[in-house]
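Issue 218. Parser rejects a valid record. Input:
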Amino acid sequence: PSDWCPAETSQLNLPDCLEVDVGMLCESDGECATDDALNNCGTYDIYARVECTETTVSQGQLMRTRPPTMPPSYAPTTSLPTMR
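Output the parser choked on:
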């Protein structure tokens, strides 16, 4: 999550996700089914490594199976006149 981003850019130089233990933060380059274009901390892709079990799937698996969001509607959402 972006609220886990370090305040200082110098602290974003984290190891990749293959080099960390469970519970540690890492910077993704696409390993372990992570999204190397996530950019949740500026241009960095920060993940927390978790232990996966049969009932807990990885963040990468969740991202690949989540349905895409719908684009915004340009149509008015009300029939009432709007201010100009």
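Fixed in the parser; the record now loads. The two ends are 39 Å apart (CA to CA).
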